[in-house]
Design brief:
The complex is a heterodimer of chains A (337) and B (433). Chain A has 337 residues and is an alpha/beta fold. In chain A, 36% of the residues lie in helices and 13% in strands. The longest helix of chain A is centred in the C-terminal third of the chain and has 20 residues. In chain B, helix 4 crosses helix 7 and helix 7 packs parallel to helix 8. Chain B starts with 8 loop residues before the first strand and ends with a strand. Classes of the chains: A alpha/beta (337), B alpha/beta (433). At the A-B interface, helix 9 of A face helix 3 and helix 4 of B.
């Protein structure tokens, strides 16, 4: 009953895996991948294809009858090893709007240890024959490990500080709907770059589509080698935001605020919190984004978060659409389809 | 302190030494509106500003007012040991016009409001300039970083963990990395607390005395670690109090690599060695401990060749409550403000360090490191000037010490060289009677 060869005890890079596990290499398949584990390894035309598909999903979601049937009979399991409200409900809604049977599995972190037990969990789930598995895990690479052990399609809903591909896709969709393009826009990603999966996925995606990407953060929140990750690096908001089209703020985790990486909330807000003065350094029509959940008064001022330049609410709507597009694209590659 | 403009002052017939421009020549210093109008040979015979006070220096040296890079004051929290007012009087008598105050007070200066407190108290009570150093970690606990940006805006000139090392290398690395974004100088006491352990310099002397030793390696290892972290973080770093020949070699190598580093030493380690401890005299107990004569000689050479940039007093007032104890139980620390210049001149009189280099280590070099305008006799610079007689002999009498505490290792010591006049912002704050 093995529908896919299960790869075990083989060490391969994620990129290699995507090409090896592609089920359909025909030129007419717009998304020839079995999993979506990251933005890394996707071609620009594949990203654009997902965005186009997501535009249609936006229309579906805005109708009274928000229902398609492409996933009819399919089982989608949302496996969240890390608490999440918006991403999990967004995936749940996306699956349901496509007609799938969706099950949420919240796995508390305390009961699950890394490594062996993760594989046990995968084996257990695999025996239930899901078609789509949406996984979030606190450890980078955990989703890749799991994808190697199951015979269904896996969507990475965030693995540690590594990647969060659907967030980058929804950000791109939001930007494109407002600016009409991605290429040649200047996007400043500000805040805790070092620990952010959102930053990594966005850096890869925005570069793939030809944007100019900047990162702005205190040096303690920049990963080593950042200057070689395809970005311009700034430690001052004034310089980093100068002439930016998009200002993308990141959440600062509470445990990093009090002396470990930055000295205090008030100092962080003073130098890196997005307020009207700092936003004024960006282009006049610059747009503000945030993956949520926000800390008002830490990385962003309330008046900016709720202001005319903010796209933060719209990002949530685009999230459902992009996840519908991803699920649909992966389902098209499932067997018996 | 009065805030009216002091009247003009002309210091004539002086030997003007301005280390910032390598000047050592007969001349005058002309001061008006609290700033230097002219200094050096070009200032001689220039006439005097209207209403100026005229002082004939009779060949004495006029140099920039000294900057003391490392001064502990008991205010706030231990005013019975020293206040900003008493410290500034001692400083003025020692020819020091700027003191950099250590943050290891009670409470620790780790909050912008406390920097503001020190600056306000200094403005109201001190006769010399006070430049506060702020804590590098909260409570000097070596765990969490302080608000370097806000503290700097409040007026902190640099950041230090006081007389304690930051043991955790990850914390130190992040601090240096964060400080770099604000172009902030990190000043560090380099002594591994675990390895240090003891109460005097490790070696034969300590063994005979029955005292546990502080190995030189406690300092060298911490310094070497720090320079690796400087290379990693590209930060701006000052090793505050080095005391061993190997430390000087480490600094030399770091400078040769192009690291943004400087090194300092306390005057005690240039003029005393472990033998001075004698019969367990606790006024010679300090951190780092006094080393042997070979290390002292190596330190003098390191000052002469510029490896050591800055000489400070490491003034640390302690009263009988903390010093009149058996050696191992007594606190570290020695007075230094009133004797730093006189003691430093011993190195000149022994022909080991030339005067321009020696004075540079207490004027322009600390000023440059902290980005202060003072420390030089340049036109427009604040009129902080010290006049001293290079040879005048004197003896430090305990009763004459101006500090509230009396723990000077130089009580009854003989000096050649005496401060005659100290001018801060154009105002004479000390004149030898």
């Amino acid at each position: 009953m093995t529908r896919f060869p299960v790869l075990s005890n083989v060490t391969i890079s994620p990129i290699a895996m995507i090409s090896m596990t592609a089920t359909n290499t025909h030129r007419d398949n717009p998304f020839p991948h079995r999993h979506l584990l990251g933005i890394e390894g996707l071609h620009p035309h594949e990203i654009l294809g997902l965005l186009d598909r997501a535009e249609e999903a936006v229309e579906v979601s805005r109708q009274i009858h928000k229902r398609k049937h492409v996933l009819q009979g399919r089982t989608q399991i949302n496996l969240f090893f890390e608490n999440s409200t918006r991403t999990q409900s967004s995936f749940e809604l996306a699956g349901k709007r496509l007609g799938a049977d969706v099950m949420n599995m919240a796995v508390s972190q305390s009961s699950v240890k890394k490594g062996e037990t993760l594989i046990d969990t995968a084996a257990t789930l695999n025996a239930m024959h899901p078609d789509l598995l949406v996984v979030r895990h606190h450890a980078a690479g955990a989703v890749h490990l799991l994808a190697r052990k199951v015979s269904c399609s896996v969507v990475n809903a965030g693995d540690g500080p590594h990647e969060h591909p659907t967030q980058a896709l929804l950000d791109a969709l939001t930007i494109r709907r407002h600016k009409g393009k991605i290429a040649r826009l200047t996007v400043a990603i500000c805040g805790d770059i070092a620990h952010s999966r959102v930053a990594r996925s966005n850096i890869i995606l925005l570069n793939a589509l030809g944007a100019r990407v900047r990162v702005v953060a205190p040096s303690t929140l920049l990963p080593s080698g950042i200057a070689k990750m395809g970005v311009e690096v700034f430690t001052s908001m004034k310089e980093g935001l100068a002439g930016a089209d998009i200002v993308m703020m990141l959440r600062l985790q509470r445990e990093r605020m009090n002396g470990a990486f930055v000295p205090s909330v008030r100092e962080y807000y003073r130098y890196y919190g997005l307020d009207a003065e700092k936003l004024s350094f960006a282009k006049e029509d610059a747009l503000v984004m945030h993956p949520g959940p926000m800390n008002r008064g830490v990385e962003i001022d309330a008046s900016i978060a709720d202001g005319a330049q903010s796209l933060i609410r719209e990002q949530v709507e685009m999230g459902v659409a992009v996840r519908m597009a991803v699920l649909e694209a992966l389902a098209a590659n499932l067997p018996n389809n | 302190m009065a805030h009216d403009t002091p009247k003009p002052l002309v210091l004539s017939n002086a030997r003007v030494i301005d280390p910032a421009r390598g000047l050592d020549a007969p001349g005058s210093v002309i001061i008006a509106d609290g700033t230097i109008l002219a200094a050096g040979p070009e200032a001689a015979n220039q006439g005097t500003p209207y209403g100026a006070e005229l002082v004939d220096c009779k060949g004495a040296i006029a140099c920039p007012g000294l900057i003391d890079f490392c001064v502990s004051v008991g205010e706030p929290g231990a005013e019975h040991r020293e206040t900003l007012a008493s410290a500034s009087q001692a400083a003025a008598a020692g020819g020091i016009t700027t003191i950099c105050t250590m943050p290891d007070t009670d409470p620790v200066i780790d909050d912008p409001a406390l920097v503001d407190f020190v600056l306000r108290r200094a403005r109201d009570t001190a006769s010399v300039n006070v430049q506060p150093l702020a804590a590098l970690t909260k409570g000097l606990r070596g765990e969490e970083m302080t608000e370097i940006g806000l503290l700097k805006e409040a007026g902190a000139v640099a950041f230090t963990n006081g007389h304690k090392s930051v043991k955790n290398a990850q914390v130190m690395r992040r601090m240096m990395t964060y400080a770099r974004d604000f172009d902030a100088l990190v000043i560090h006491h380099t002594e591994d607390p675990d390895l240090a352990g003891g109460v005097m310099n490790a070696g034969l002397n300590a063994s005979w005395k029955g005292l546990s030793g502080v190995p030189r390696e406690a300092e060298i290892i911490m310094l070497e670690r720090d320079l690796r972290l400087v290379a990693m973080s590209k930060g701006k770093y000052h090793a505050n109090l080095i005391s061993t020949s190997d430390s000087a070699d480490v600094i030399r190598a770091g400078k040769a690599k192009g690291l943004n580093i400087t090194a300092g030493i306390s005057i005690n380690h240039l003029t005393n060695n472990e033998n001075d401890i004698g019969a367990y005299r606790t006024f010679f107990k300090m951190s780092p401990p006094l080393r042997d004569e070979d290390d002292r000689q190596a330190m003098i050479s390191a000052v002469a060749d510029g490896t050591i940039d800055i000489i400070c007093s490491n003034h640390d007032p302690q009263d009988v409550e903390t010093k009149r104890h058996p050696w191992a139980e007594a606190e570290d620390g020695a007075l230094g403000l009133e004797t730093m210049l006189a003691a430093a001149l011993r190195l000149y009189h022994s022909d080991q360090v030339d005067l321009v280099t020696l004075l540079g280590a207490m004027t322009c070099r600390p000023a440059d490191r902290l980005g202060l305008e003072t420390g030089r006799l340049a036109k427009g610079a604040p009129a902080d000037v010290t006049v001293f007689d290079l040879d005048k002999p004197w003896v430090l009498e305990k009763s004459a010490i101006r500090s509230r505490s009396k723990n000077s290792p130089f009580v009854d010591a003989r000096f050649s060289g005496r401060v005659l006049r100290t001018v801060v912002g154009g105002r004479t704050v000390y004149a030898y009677a």
